[in-house]
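REVIEWER CHECKLIST
Item 1: Sequence provided? yes
Item 2: Single chain? yes
Item 3: Sequence as submitted:
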Amino acid sequence: MTQEPREPLPTGDLRAVLFDSGGVLMQPIGGRWNPRADFEPTVLGHVPSISPERFAAAIAAGDRFLDASDSTPDYDDYHRVLLTHLGIDPTPRLLAELSRPVDPATILETFPDVTRTLEELRRRGIRMAVVSDAWPGLPDLHAALGIHEFFEAYAISAELGCNKPDPRMYHHASTALGLAPAQCLFIDDDPALVAAAIDLGYAGRAMCRDAPPAANGGVPWISSLTELLDLF
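Item 4: Structure as written out by the authors:
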């Protein structure tokens, strides 16, 4: 059966944009979100004999752990899964090294269209918030990348104890702005999460930077953040 396209809500009364973070605002240098790019060098500093194949298997185990979690787990718990899979004792010292502060500019970058779009949205009086499956340090990462100032509120899975598409994620952000769902446009690089927002009464656009989505259930999509400016 062919799925009927979702009818996007009218955009004439929109007053805010709720942004996902990864894949919409920023991306990891090198292409991998988790673990951080310095995971292998840090571990090799303690156990030099770990092969690339063993690292790949441990990272896959970490991915399964994240996928099975109802919300974003504690960062140390995630690292314990990887280290245990590698047969390494997750000592407090090693866990502290793996989560030590680093310059976000060495591991993350914003997309080229982000800052100028956020600046123009702010100039037009559009309010902005972030809705992200992430660890609590996300606002600090955004601050280091120069975009935290644009956002009035954050809905972060590790703090709320749930992941998208749980309605609490979307509602936390719109409620913090004092706006109804229909006044907010939600942007995510996962069309299914945008579809969930539309079903809750939000307007929505899927971010598909590289190519049109192969199957998105009729969710409207954009290929650049600058396209948002046509809606306001």
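Item 5: Key structural point noted by reviewer: The beta strands are 16-19, 26-28, 108-110, 127-132, 153-156, 184-188, 203-207, 221-222.
Item 6: Recommendation: ____
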